[in-house]
Inverse folding.
């Protein structure tokens, strides 16, 4: 039975090193933000990803999609909201929305699928404690 | 009438700074590789993206998708093959395949859509010389 | 007469994308942390670097030095303490110390000199309001 | 007796993702270039750093210094010349000069000291085959 763990918001500022010569946050920086958002989602729901890796639970990215609707700039305060959903026994889908702090407009959306693998790179089941927490995948179908 | 400019291959090595603690090339590094591949595609077909920006033709990324099938590691020699296609008057879709050098297996695929905008961020038509070169979008539909 | 603006501490977590295959925070990531620390130093003392650039006050880095004594790892909570000092009319030296949060041991020290230039890249005087704030350079001589 | 292995030049282009909103190559990008230069120095002299790590010979950076004299920009073709020298039994100093391709002016200089450690992070002697190759440290004193 799917769990009900909800979305988590992580707030940060765009770094100068993340700007590019267009004067915008480079589209590649968003990938590292989504990653930090996934790690904060896990933390807020009781999982340390650092600890998971120590226990042999690795989660490499197998799919990544980003839509850039409205740009961000150096020093912008950004709210990244991340939600997770289970995809079968060994994959998790994370959906993210990116906004300026205290603004409703979605600036960017992202979707990342991670696989659960062991240190040998082979698929393994997600930890039961994590699966129990995760909503079913259709919860993020719109993202 | 769509043009017939073909795919371009760029070869490089995975940098140590692009590795992560899983011992793999970090998924975010691929984004910068796709970007370099687009720039090489343009160069090989007679366009300097640096020069285009100087002339007020900017191409920010509006969509990004990557599939990671098989990992890459530090120091791997990589072949990135990029093809471009026109999407309407002001957008270009780039599709990429990533392989180890001299290996047939596709390790990763990517698709990036860029918009053509002016220095003010507003959409503008692609330069005619570029449009004339680009195949129609269905040429990359499979990527 | 030199000013008395003091050191500023910025706290953050090491990102996964900043790890490398040794399992440590990559030495290049520290450079972007020092930069964020400089920007927080300015902000806490009343200057927005974003706003300064808008007004034509740019501060490119002309010297960088880092010592790595003890490594950091993904997810470590880090305290970066930054102090600034004036170097003549158009340069500022920033000295930084990096520690694990709530730990006394210095893990790393950094020193960065920035030049004050205009949009044309030519040296210009630091804004008087900033110079008035900055201690003299010997305040950071030990770093 | 010190060896006579000479400097190695690696040529590359500045990536778009390495530019910043000043329109220059970000100072942090140089750090990853120096690293690639060290790896090419080793390769040209018969050592695969990837292989060395597999054999338990790790070389984390313990000191880094860079001087930025004249900026570089996106798409510049850059020549990075790297020389190595031995520092005692377990450290190597690498000195680098950065120029535009086919230009004499030095745009930037760098110096990096790496320690030789085992997988446990403890100092270990450099491989004898590498020590035999390396000139003494004063060969790079000017850098």
């Amino acid at each position: 039975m799917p769990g009900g763990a909800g979305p988590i918001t992580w707030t940060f500022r765009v770094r100068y090193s993340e700007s590019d010569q267009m004067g915008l946050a480079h589209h590649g920086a968003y990938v590292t933000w989504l990653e930090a958002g996934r790690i904060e989602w896990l933390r807020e729901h009781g999982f340390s990803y650092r600890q998971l890796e120590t226990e042999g639970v690795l989660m490499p990215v197998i799919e990544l999609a980003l839509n850039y609707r409205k740009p961000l700039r150096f020093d912008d305060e950004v709210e990244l909201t991340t939600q997770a959903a289970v995809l079968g026994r060994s994959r998790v889908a994370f959906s993210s929305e990116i906004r300026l702090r205290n603004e409703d407009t979605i600036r960017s959306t992202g979707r990342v699928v991670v696989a659960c693998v062991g240190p040998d790179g082979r698929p393994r089941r997600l930890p039961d404690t994590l699966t129990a927490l995760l909503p079913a995948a259709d919860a993020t179908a719109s993202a």
Notes: The first helix of chain B runs from residue 29 to 44. Residues 139-143 of chain B have pLDDT under 50 and may be disordered. Helices of chain B lie at 29-44, 49-54, 128-131.
